[in-house]
Specification:
Layout lengths: L21 E13 L4 E12 L6 E6 L3 E7 L4 E2 L2 E3 L7 E6 L6 E9 L7 E4 L1 H4 L5 E4 L19 E11 L4 E3 L2 E2 L4 E3 L3 E13 L5 E3 L1
Parallel strand pairs: 1-11
Antiparallel strand pairs: 1-2, 2-8, 3-7, 4-5, 4-8, 6-7, 9-10, 10-16, 11-15, 12-16, 13-15, 14-15
Length: 209
């Protein structure tokens, strides 16, 4: 039986992204796990390259994300952005790109939702121990509920991450840990990760416990 849902983009029926116009080339996450609010909060920095010289928009996927600000890192200027109407596959996030740059770095400040389809927050009782537990499940199209991104298998990018968690919890990701954990004021611990192999967004994973 044919699906009654319209295609969200020419390249992927389940993604609003348009990597044929402007494509994400790298991702850096800087997120803090807030177990009291059951959200990840912080920012994602995206490397962006215009595929079409005249491209003026970056099309991303998002789902129940609270976008606060979008900036072009080179100039520090805020960029216009808007989130479209939400549907079964989340919503379209459109960022207006600078006209004069072909390659750029864009940082989006945001937080996830307590009802994120990508994240599961377990209480100590649910986790069967003395501490809470967080894990992600981004396959097949749920990374957009954790990170604003081009959430389509046709886009593969390397990623790095700085993840801050309450002590004494440990953070792990689908990436190699860089260096030793850093103790921060306020009973927090910071971990850094690097995944140099370009991967699809649904393979980005986090676990904290």
């Amino acid at each position: 039986m044919a699906s009654s849902m319209p295609r969200l983009s020419p390249g992927d029926p389940s993604s609003y992204s348009r990597p044929d116009q402007a494509v994400v080339t790298r991702i850096h996450l800087d997120l803090t796990a807030d177990f009291s609010k059951q959200v990840l909060t912080g920012s994602v920095t995206l490397g962006v390259r215009k595929v079409e010289e005249q491209a003026r928009q970056l099309k991303l996927d998002c789902s129940k994300l609270d976008i606060v600000e979008v900036k072009e890192d080179g100039s520090g200027k805020s960029l216009d952005w808007k989130v479209g109407e939400a549907g079964p596959c989340g919503a379209e996030l459109t960022v207006t790109l600078p006209e004069t740059k072909e390659d750029m770095s864009i940082t989006l400040s945001y937080s996830t939702s307590p009802s994120s389809s990508a994240l599961q927050w377990l209480s100590p009782a649910q986790a069967g121990g003395d501490h809470p537990y967080l894990f992600s499940q981004n396959q097949a199209i749920h990374c957009r509920a954790m990170v604003p991104c081009q959430d389509t298998p046709s886009v593969k990018v390397p990623y790095t991450a700085t993840i801050t968690v309450p002590s004494p919890l440990t953070a792990l990701m689908s990436a190699l840990r860089e260096g030793d954990p850093l103790s921060l004021p306020g009973g927090l611990t910071q971990y850094k990760f690097s995944q140099l192999v370009p991967i699809q967004s649904y393979l980005i994973a986090i676990a904290v416990g």
